[in-house]
Amino acid sequence: MKKENIFIMVLLVLILAILVWMNMPKESLIGTTVNVMGTAKTTIAKDLVTVTLGVTTQDKTVKDALSKNNADINKVINALKSIGVKGEDIQTSSFWINPTYDYNTQPPTRTGYSVEHDLTVTVKSDLIGDVINASANAGANAFYNLNFKVSNEDEIKNGLIDKALLDAKSKAEQIAKNIGKKVVDYKIVSYEYIGQPTATPIFGGGGGEGMGAGVPIEIGSNEIEVRVYVTFVLK
After folding, report:
1. Which of 116, 155, 225, 233 could join 185 in a cystine, given CB atoms 3.0 to 4.6 angstroms apart?
2. Is residue 99 part of a domain?
3. Could you give the CA distance from residue 71 to residue 142 in angstroms, rounded to a whole number?
C-alpha cells in the first residue's frame, strides 16, 4: 500500500512539473528578449498618371449624334498618339447614348440624342500637361479624375522593409552589447506603412473648347515610411 502511495505521489509531482514547464514563458527558457522598432523612409515621385477625358456630342438623331462623336473622338485619339501616347495606354472607360429633352414644356419634349465617349489615358507624369492640351484642342470637352501614382510601389515597399529590419537588428545588437549579451534569434515581426504612395485625385470636372499650350500640372512627391516591430532573443 505504501509503495502504491509513493508511486501516485511521484506521478503527481511529475505531472505538476510538466504543467509548470508547459506554462513557463518561452523567453525564460531560451534567453532574454528585447522589443525593437526599426524604421526606414524615402521620398518618392509619382511617375505615372491616369486621366479620364471624353467627347460629348448632341444632335436630333442617334445616327447624327454618333457620327459626330465618332469623328471627334478619333481626332482626340490621333492627337494623343501624335504626342507619344501608346495605343495600349488609351482605353474606352465609358460610352453612353441618351435622349435629350426640353424641360421647359409640359410634358417635356424630346429634342434629340446625346452621345458621350470617355477614354482613360495612362502616361508618364511629365506628359500629362501635353495630354490635356492636345486632347482639348482636338475636341475633348470633358476631363475627370486626374490621379498620380507610383509605378514600382511594391518594389519600394519591399526595399524599405529590408532596411527597416536591418535598422531593428542594429538597435537590438547595440542593446545586447551594452548588457553583455548577443542576438541569437527573433520571434515576432510585424510592420506598417506610414504615408503610403497611393493614387492621389487632383481634380474633376468639365473641359472647354480648347486650352493654351503648357497646362500647368503640379506633380509633387510623397514620403513613405516603414516601421517594423521585432522581438529579438538575447543570450
Report:
1. 233
2. yes
3. 16
- Separation between Cα atoms, residue 205 and residue 58, nearest integer Å: 19
Q: Is residue 51 part of a domain?
A: yes
Q: With DSSP H G I counted as helix, E B as strand and the rest as coil, what are the percentages for the chain, rounded to 5?
A: 40, 40, 20
Q: How many CB atoms lie within 10 A of CB 61?
A: 10
What local confidence, expressed as pLDDT, does residue 206 receive? 47
**Whether 234 contacts 33, CB under 8 Å:** yes
Question: Of 143, 141, 137, whose CA–CA distance to 57 is shortest?
Answer: 141
Q: What is the pLDDT of residues 49-73, one digit of tens each?
A: 999 999 999 999 999 999 999 999 9
The CATH number of the domain where 67 resides is what?
3.30.70.2970
Which residues is 95 bridged to in the sheet?
117
Q: At what angle do helices 128-138 and 62-82 cross, to 10 degrees?
A: 140
User: pLDDT, tens digit, for every residue of 179-208?
Assistant: 899 999 988 788 888 875 544 444 434 444
User: Do residues 113 and 98 touch, judged by C-beta distance below 8 A?
Assistant: yes
Please give the C-alpha separations between residue 44 and each of 123, 157, 220, in angstroms, as whole numbers. Answer: 17, 11, 9
Q: What secondary structure letter does DSSP report for 78?
A: H
Residue 16 lies in a domain: no
Answer whether residue 25 shows pLDDT above 60: no
Domain contains 207: yes
Name the helix (H) or strand (E) containing 193.
strand 183-194
Alpha helices by DSSP H, listed for 49-120, are 62-82
